[in-house]
Design goal:
The chain has 231 residues and is α+β, with helices and mostly antiparallel strands. Helix content is 32%, strand content 15%. The protein has 2 domains: 4-50 and 164-208, no CATH class; 56-150, no CATH class. The chain is built from 5 helices and 10 strands; from the N terminus they run ααβββββαβββββαα. Strands 1, 2, 3, 4 and 10 form a 5-stranded antiparallel beta sheet that branches. Strands 5-7-8 form a 3-stranded mixed beta sheet, with helices on one face. Helix 1 (4-14) packs across helix 2 (32-49).
């Protein structure tokens, strides 16, 4: 596991910057090359995290208490995207109700015009602003449980650690070296970084995307949870 500062220092050594690299990612006396490394590492981490919305490592849960008479639910502060098959009313009781998803345009026509019923929610949709709307309008504050994918978090302080699983942190450096090779006209660094990054990205996708893990096993372990990803 590497901190933001350690990633920057490791990259600095790899590309031949004299010394031990940045003393701090926020230091005021960094050289132009060190400032570039700090920037490249931050951008590389975000680039990888933003590649897929449903990385397993961005998965999270929330329990939301609806307001009586209000059809919309309060979104988690770190919401990126909802997991649409996981919205459940009163999940912890025998009376739980899994809500059915409906596309917003159809939902709006069927459930948002005229007098709107109130009661136990049965159907939901995602409004264009990424807010959940449920029907019927809740008539109690009984909890609605959800699963969702968090928005990526930027590295900022020396001790910050990327959300990417630690065993794949080297790919952040590989991606950052691609930036460096392209911007600093360093083809020898660029070619090696591209090969390393593509290999590590394939491994990360197999490990952290739903239905992809069997890509990196010599024998498929679970035929019922196996998705072929076209090249």
């Amino acid at each position: 596991m590497s901190t933001y500062l350690q990633l920057c220092q490791d990259m600095s050594r790899d590309i031949g910057i004299p010394g031990t690299g940045p003393s701090s990612v926020t230091a005021s006396d960094l050289s132009e090359e060190e400032l570039a490394v700090v920037r490249y590492i931050k951008n590389a981490d975000l680039d990888i995290q933003r590649r897929w919305f449903n990385w397993n490592y961005l998965w999270s849960e929330a329990n939301i208490a609806p307001s009586i008479g209000v059809s919309t639910l309060t979104s988690p502060a770190d919401l990126g995207n909802w997991k649409l098959d996981s919205i459940v009313f009163s999940k912890a009781t025998d009376d739980y109700q899994q809500l059915d998803f409906m596309d917003w345009e159809q939902y709006r026509l069927e459930y948002k015009l005229g007098v709107i019923d109130s009661g136990t929610p049965e159907v939901f949709s995602i409004k264009p602003d990424n807010v959940i709307d449920v029907w019927p309008t809740p008539d109690s504050t009984t909890t609605i449980s959800t699963e969702y994918y968090r928005v990526p978090t930027e590295l900022a302080a020396d001790s910050d650690i990327s959300s990417i699983p630690p065993r794949f942190h080297n790919m952040i450096i590989a991606r950052a070296k691609i930036y460096y090779g392209e911007n600093e006209d360093a083809p020898e660094i660029l070619s090696g970084a591209l090969a390393s990054f593509e290999d590590l990205l394939d491994k990360l996708e197999a490990d952290q995307l739903p239905g992809q893990k069997n890509r990196r096993f010599s024998k498929v372990q679970d035929l019922f949870n196996y998705t072929v990803r076209p090249e």
